[in-house]
Write a structure and sequence with these properties.
heterodimer; A: 534 residues; alpha/beta; Alkaline Phosphatase, subunit A; 2 domains; nine-stranded mixed β-sheet; B: 102 residues; mainly alpha; Non-ribosomal Peptide Synthetase Peptidyl Carrier Protein, Chain A; two-stranded antiparallel sheet
C-alpha cells in the first residue's frame, strides 16, 4: 500500500487560512498548497463535527451511517431520553476497518466517536473522551502506557477537559482568552508529539491525526481571525488576542511541517476539514417561535413544589427542552442538529400528529417557516428548509430531524424559551459554514491545481485510491481525478471492489441511557463553550 | 470466569468478579482516596467518585465485558422516575443477574 497521511483540521476554512498563508503566519501550508492541489470541501447537509467526520471515515452519508448530532435521543411514551453517541452507533464500516482487514496498518488519532475503539490492525486514540477514560478507550492495549512514558505526556490536557469547559459556562472572560488559546496550543502540541511517536515507532500505511483546535479557536475568536470582520481600529486587547490566535496557527503550521517531514517524501499527504467557518450575527430561537405558533407548549412549572421547580428551571436554563409533551407537536431538541422534530403518534409517542396527517402538517410548517422574517428588514432569515428524506436519504435516518433549517448566516438555532425570537448578537461569533478545505500533495498529485468543489464523502475513496486499494462499491463519493496528474491517473486506474462489511450491531439502534442532570450540564457547558448554544 | 466467555449462565460471583474487573480497569488512573479492595458494598459515587460521564462509560464497559448490548440500564439508574444518588456494585450484580439470564 502506498503510505498515506491525512491531517484533519476541524473547522478549517480558506477564509481564514488564505490570509494566514499570505501574511507569512503559515509558510509551510503556503508551500504545501503551491506544490499540490486544493479544493473547497462541502460538508454534510448540517455541517457538524460528528456527521461530517463520520462521513469522511465511512464514505457514506449520514442517512446511511446514522449519525446526525452529538447526542442520540429517543422519546419513550411520556419522557425524553438521550445520551452521547459513541462508536457503536456508527452503522457503516469505517476506513480504519476496511484498510485493516486488507492487511493494512492504520492509525486514527483524535477522531470523535472512536470510543470504544474497534479492533483494527494499528492504533486508535479517540477524541472527545475524558482523560479518566482514555486508557481503556485506546487500542491496542498497552498504547496508553507507551504514551505515558513519553516526556511531557499529559493525559488531562490531551483529552477533553471538562473542568476547563465548565469555566466557560458563562462565557470566557476577556482575561481568560489568552489562557484558552495557550491551552489549545499545548493540546495540539501533545497530539503532535503522539503523531510523531506513531509515525516513528508503529507500522502504518494510513495515519490520520485530527487537530481540533482550529474549530475551538474559531468559535471563540472568529472576529479576531477573519480580516473582513476584525475591527479597522482595534483596541489593544483585540490586537493582542488576534496575535494569540495567529500564534496558534503558526504553531500548528510548524507541527504539520514536522509531521509531513517525518512521514517522508514518498507519503501522499491529504488535509481536510469537516466544515468551514464564517460569521454569525443572529440566533433564531426556534422553540420560542414554535410556541408562538401553537406547536409547542412549555412545561408549566407553577404547580410544582418549590424544590422541583428549581430543578426544572435549572434544566431549562441549561438548554435542554422541558416541554408539555401532550401539547407539543413539533420541537427542536438540540441546537447543534439545527432541526425540528415532528411528534407522530406511534408506539413510543402517545400524543402528537396522526401519521396520516404528517405530510400536510410538515408542509404547513415549512410554509410558515419560510415566512419567518427579520423584523428590521423584512427579509427571510431561513435560507433553506430540508426535508428528512431529501437531506438524509438512507436506511438509517431514523434519528434525523424531520426538517433541517439552513439559516441565512448558517447560525446554530437556539432551543431556549427566550425572547426576542430573532436575537441579534452584540458582536460577531464564529459558526459552521458548509465549505471546508481539501488539500493534497505528494507523488502523483498535481501541482498548483485548484480543483472543483468536492464533497466530504469524496475523501474516503480518495484515500483508498491513494493506498492502492479498491473502492468499495457502496461508497457514495468519487475519486477526485482532477487532483491527480493525468499520467498518474491514467496509468493507475481505480477499481471498484466489493461492498463494505456490515457492522456487527448494524441492525440495532443504541440503548438509550438517560443522562443525569450533572451530565446534561457538562454537555451543555461544552456546547456553550463552543458557541453552539446561547 | 474469563472475559469472552458466555455470561448467560453466569452466577452472581462470576458477575461480581466481572464488574469489579471493569471498575478497576476504569478507575486505575484516577488517583482515588478510596482505600481497600472494591467489593459488593462499594459505591460508585460515594466511594469511587463517579461522575455522570463516568456512569455512561461504565455502562458501555459493562455491555462490552458481558457482551450484551441494549440492557435496560434505566432500571439501574432510575427509581420512580428519578435518578438514583448511588449505585452499589451489588446493585449492578442484581441488575445483570436478572438481565443476562433473560
Amino acid at each position: 500500500m502506498h503510505p498515506t497521511l491525512l491531517i484533519g483540521l476541524d473547522g478549517a476554512t480558506f477564509t481564514i487560512l488564505d490570509p494566514l498563508m499570505e501574511d507569512g503566519t503559515m509558510p509551510f501550508l503556503r508551500e504545501f498548497v503551491h506544490g499540490g492541489s486544493r479544493a473547497k470541501l462541502m460538508s454534510t447537509p448540517n455541517p457538524l463535527t460528528p456527521p461530517a467526520w463520520i462521513t469522511l471515515e465511512t464514505g457514506r452519508t449520514p442517512g446511511n451511517h446514522g449519525v446526525f448530532d452529538f447526542i442520540w435521543a429517543e422519546e419513550r411514551k411520556s419522557d425524553h431520553y438521550f445520551t452521547l453517541h459513541n462508536f457503536r452507533d456508527i452503522q457503516c464500516e469505517t476506513i480504519w476497518s476496511i484498510v485493516s482487514r486488507q492487511n493494512g496498518h492504520v492509525c486514527s488519532l483524535n477522531y470523535p466517536m472512536m470510543a470504544p475503539p474497534p479492533p483494527v490492525a494499528g492504533c486508535i486514540v479517540p477524541g472527545l473522551v475524558s482523560w479518566k477514560h482514555l486508557r481503556r478507550n485506546m487500542h491496542p492495549k498497552g498504547l496508553y502506557d507507551k504514551f505515558k512514558a513519553l516526556p511531557g505526556f499529559n493525559a488531562r490536557e490531551l483529552a477533553w477537559d471538562f473542568d476547563l469547559e465548565k469555566k466557560a459556562e458563562t462565557g470566557i472572560p476577556e482575561e481568560e482568552y489568552e489562557h484558552w488559546v495557550e491551552y489549545h496550543i499545548r493540546r495540539e502540541q501533545l497530539w503532535f508529539e503522539i503523531t510523531c511517536y506513531i509515525l516513528k515507532n508503529e507500522p502504518w500505511n494510513l495515519v490520520s491525526i485530527l487537530f481540533d483546535g482550529p474549530d475551538k479557536i474559531s468559535h471563540m475568536g472568529y472576529r479576531f481571525l477573519d480580516p473582513a470582520v476584525f475591527p479597522k481600529n482595534p483596541t489593544n486587547w483585540e490586537v493582542k488576542i488576534r496575535q494569540l490566535c495567529l500564534e496558534f496557527f503558526r504553531k500548528l503550521d510548524g507541527f504539520m511541517e514536522e509531521i509531513v517531514k517525518i512521514a517522508g517524501p514518498e507519503t501522499r499527504v491529504f488535509m481536510a476539514s469537516d466544515h468551514g467557518f464564517g460569521p454569525s450575527r443572529e440566533v433564531f430561537r426556534v422553540n420560542s417561535w414554535l410556541h408562538s405558533k401553537g406547536y409547542l407548549t412549555w412545561k408549566d412549572l407553577s404547580q410544582l413544589e418549590s424544590d422541583k421547580k428549581k430543578t426544572a428551571q435549572r434544566v431549562i436554563d441549561r438548554h435542554f427542552v422541558l416541554l408539555d409533551w401532550k401539547k407539543t407537536t413539533a420541537y427542536a431538541r438540540s441546537a447543534t442538529s439545527n432541526g425540528i422534530y415532528i411528534r407522530v403518534i406511534g408506539d413510543s409517542c402517545l400524543t402528537g400528529v396522526k401519521p396520516e396527517n404528517y405530510e400536510s402538517f410538515r408542509d404547513q410548517l415549512i410554509t410558515e417557516l419560510q415566512d419567518v422574517r427579520d423584523p428590521e428588514t423584512g427579509m427571510p432569515i431561513i435560507k433553506d428548509i430540508l426535508k428528512k428524506e431529501e437531506a438524509f436519504p438512507g436506511k438509517n435516518n431514523k434519528q434525523a430531524p424531520d426538517l433541517t433549517l439552513v439559516m441565512r448566516d448558517h447560525s446554530f438555532i437556539s432551543i431556549m424559551d427566550k425572547k426576542p425570537i430573532l436575537y441579534k448578537r452584540p458582536y460577531v461569533e464564529g459558526t459552521h459554514y458548509p465549505a471546508g478545505i481539501f488539500l493534497a500533495k505528494g507523488p502523483g498529485i498535481r501541482q498548483g491545481k485548484i480543483a472543483p468543489r468536492m464533497s466530504i464523502k469524496d475523501v474516503t475513496p480518495c484515500l483508498m485510491y491513494s493506498l492502492g486499494l479498491d473502492i468499495p462499491s457502496d461508497f457514495e463519493g468519487k475519486v477526485p481525478a482532477e487532483i491527480f496528474s493525468e499520467n498518474y491517473f491514467s496509468s493507475n486506474p481505480y477499481k471498484i471492489g466489493k461492498e463494505t462489511m456490515p457492522v456487527g450491531s448494524g441492525e440495532q439502534l443504541p440503548q438509550a441511557v438517560p443522562l443525569t442532570t450533572d451530565e446534561e450540564k457538562e454537555i451543555y457547558e461544552q456546547f456553550k463553550a463552543l458557541g453552539y448554544v446561547e | 470466569m474469563e472475559e469472552n466467555e458466555n455470561f448467560e449462565t453466569a452466577g452472581r460471583e462470576d458477575i461480581l468478579a466481572g464488574i469489579i474487573e471493569v471498575v478497576e480497569d476504569l478507575t486505575q488512573d484516577w488517583d482515588l482516596e478510596f482505600e481497600g479492595a472494591i467489593n459488593a458494598e462499594t459505591g460508585l459515587v460515594g466511594d469511587l467518585d463517579f461522575e455522570s460521564i463516568d456512569i455512561v462509560e461504565f455502562v458501555v464497559a459493562i455491555e462490552q465485558y458481558f457482551k450484551k448490548r441494549g440492557l435496560p440500564f434505566e432500571e439501574l439508574l432510575m427509581e420512580e422516575g428519578r435518578y438514583v444518588d448511588e449505585i452499589k456494585i451489588k446493585d449492578t450484580v442484581d441488575f445483570l443477574f436478572k438481565h443476562l439470564h433473560g
